[in-house]
Design brief:
about 15% strand; alpha/beta; 8-stranded parallel beta sheet; two-stranded antiparallel ribbon; about 325 residues
Length: about 325
């Protein structure tokens, strides 16, 4: 396993972050693994040297956090870097169970800590931007959580670059703990983040941990076979993103071509490309099989030349913004 410093936090994290959206209960989404199957993957990740885990309160409505906490309780907590997120409404009858108000942050953070079975969360992220709550209030609530010792660092997820820049400036102006990471939507067939967000993060020393590095499976198999998986058949969100637009189909074909040439999988090529991007610290990789997890770790050893990268990137065309609007 390779390790890197996460932004300016000083924390050393594995170059692969294990995303935990697929752990919890199949009652939430059909493709989600229950606890016993989830445990097998998490334990294998630890065996492979992964020390960075990302979940969220909304994943299986809290069950993902509980499962992750149960498994990690059998290991040395000091060796783990655990990230979770809050924003989406957890209880349809309680509007204050979502959003980024002080009330929502404090109660949902407390609930996440309880489910994880931890005293402190290493990285607590806002899952989306809250248009109904002033950013200053959110930042003050997160700063207080840092001072109470409930979280070590605060992070953000997909939003407009001007919103993120304003949040960083507000923290600096008020002397508050600032966002240390950006979990954004970024992969070979969605590169709009390269225009503003990634340069901003590099300039500000913000760690970048992209979600959907393999475009929700679109970059793992030929485009005509994308519906062949349980998730592809049942996940309506697959089609919210413009992966098939702006040269996406040709990029998919080039990934397949290069994978065949190098004797690796399409997923490994897509992940390797992301690992070659200077702005990226650790892509968040979700999986429902040990085999795919092992292949993701093996992608660290794949060397893509500059010409390989240029070949994969060349068909890309601008597409509509996706992931936070």
């Amino acid at each position: 396993m390779e390790y890197t410093t996460l932004g300016s936090t000083g924390m050393e994290v594995s170059r692969i972050c294990l995303g935990c959206m697929s752990f919890g209960t199949s009652d939430w989404r059909e493709w989600v693994l229950d606890e016993e199957e989830s445990r097998e993957i998490i334990e294998r990740a630890i065996d492979l040297g992964i020390n960075f885990f990302d979940t969220a309160n909304m994943y299986s409505l809290g069950e993902s956090e509980r499962v992750l906490g149960n498994v990690l309780a059998d290991y040395d907590r000091d060796e783990q870097v655990v990230a979770t997120k809050g924003f989406f409404q957890m209880d349809e009858d309680n509007p204050n169970s979502g959003g980024l108000s002080r009330k929502a942050i404090e109660q949902e953070l407390s609930n996440s800590l309880e489910r994880l079975g931890m005293d402190t969360i290493d990285l607590y992220q806002i899952h989306r931007y809250d248009y109904d709550t002033p950013m200053e209030q959110t930042l003050r609530a997160l700063d207080d959580a840092v001072r109470r010792g409930q979280i070590r660092h605060a992070g953000a997820s997909s939003m407009w670059a001007h919103q993120f820049a304003d949040a960083l400036h507000t923290s600096d102006r008020l002397g508050l703990d600032r966002f240390a990471t950006m979990q954004n939507h970024y992969n070979l067939v969605y590169r709009e983040e390269e225009r503003e967000m990634l340069p901003l993060c590099e300039r500000e020393g913000v760690g970048v941990i992209p979600w959907s590095p393999m475009a929700r499976g679109y970059l793992t198999r030929p485009h005509e076979d994308i519906d062949a998986t349980t998730r592809g058949e049942t996940e309506e969100h697959m089609y919210e993103h413009p992966y098939r637009e702006g040269g996406g189909q040709e990029i998919n074909e080039r990934v397949a071509e290069l994978a065949a040439e190098k004797g690796v999988t399409m997923a490994q090529i897509a992940l390797s490309w992301l690992l070659h991007q200077d702005a990226v610290d650790a892509p968040i990789v979700g999986t429902t099989s040990v085999e795919h997890l092992e292949q993701a770790v093996e992608a660290l050893e794949i060397d893509l030349s500059e010409s390989d990268q240029a070949y994969l990137e060349e068909p890309y065309e601008p597409v509509r913004v996706s992931g936070h609007e």
